[in-house]
Automatic annotation (TrEMBL):
Full protein name: Guanylate kinase
InterPro entries assigned to the protein according to its UniProt record, in alphabetical order: GK/Ca_channel_bsu (IPR008145), Guanylate_kin-like_dom (IPR008144), Guanylate_kinase_CS (IPR020590), P-loop_NTPase (IPR027417)
EC number in record: 2.7.4.8
GO molecular function, one term: GMP kinase activity
Keywords: Kinase, Transferase
Highest taxon in the source lineage: Bacteria
Family: Belongs to the guanylate kinase family.
Ranges where the Guanylate kinase-like domain occurs: 9-206
Presence of the UniProt keyword DNA-binding in the record: no
PANTHER family with a match to the protein in the record: GUANYLATE KINASE, GUANYLATE KINASE-RELATED
Gene3D superfamilies for the chain: P-loop containing nucleotide triphosphate hydrolases
Length: 214
């Protein structure tokens, strides 16, 4: 089967276990790349103080959200997260494409698969991993000083994943990447020093734009 011709602008996904610095990498990229945007997702939850419709989320009534799902207006959605619905509106991503922007998202493997099904020509998939178990534990502990049992399980899972870094047939066990292997991603990077990782991701994006004629 022929691979789909890669198109531009791109839908860039960054996946990795909790605590690897994905959000920090994306924030740094957005601050220095005028061609890059982060799309706004939709939710049925009530806005919190200071949140603005269209900036923080698209706040929708449940009936409106469900109707959008039925019409295929979402690239991906979670029907029940803490009692609310969340999702990525297709029209939001297409709006940014029409304005000439590449879009970037921190999303788990399930979301990546759904994005790829919807936009196979647009997607560019990056995987970011921590340098080692100790550094990941430090980051998770800093985020949650009383590391719960779930956190310890996640540490064990990512350690097994990292032990198989060069095994293309290994299938991830970490919840954020479960069911995928290293070969499912276009680029795999280790986030040791944030500034270096940001520079490397920026270089990778620049090279991919050149390949796609941007």
């Amino acid at each position: 089967m022929l691979k789909p011709v890669k198109e531009r602008p791109m839908l860039i996904t960054i996946t990795g276990p909790s605590g690897t610095g994905k959000s920090a990498v994306i924030s740094a990229l957005l601050s220095q790349d005028p061609k890059l945007r982060r799309f706004v997702t939709a939710t049925t939850r009530t806005p919190r103080p200071g949140e603005e419709h269209g900036r923080d989320y698209y706040f929708m009534e449940r009936a409106e959200f469900e109707a959008g799902v039925a019409k295929g207006e979402f690239l991906e959605h979670n029907p029940n997260y803490n009692g609310n619905m969340y999702g990525t509106p297709k029209w939001e991503v297409e709006r940014l494409f029409d304005e000439g922007f590449d879009v970037i998202s921190d999303i788990n493997a399930i979301g990546v698969r759904l994005f790829e099904q919807a936009m196979p020509q647009r997607i560019f998939k990056l995987l970011i991993l921590p340098p080692n178990r100790e550094r990941l534990e430090q980051r998770l502990t800093k985020r949650n000083p009383e590391l719960a049992d779930e956190g310890r399980v996640r540490l064990q899972q990512i350690e097994a994943d990292m032990d198989n870094l060069h095994n293309p047939s290994y299938v991830f066990t970490n919840p954020d990447m479960v069911g995928t292997s290293y070969g499912d991603y276009d680029v795999v990077l280790v986030n040791d020093v944030l500034e270096h990782t940001v520079a490397e991701v920026a270089k990778v994006i620049t090279n991919e734009r050149a390949k796609r004629g941007q």
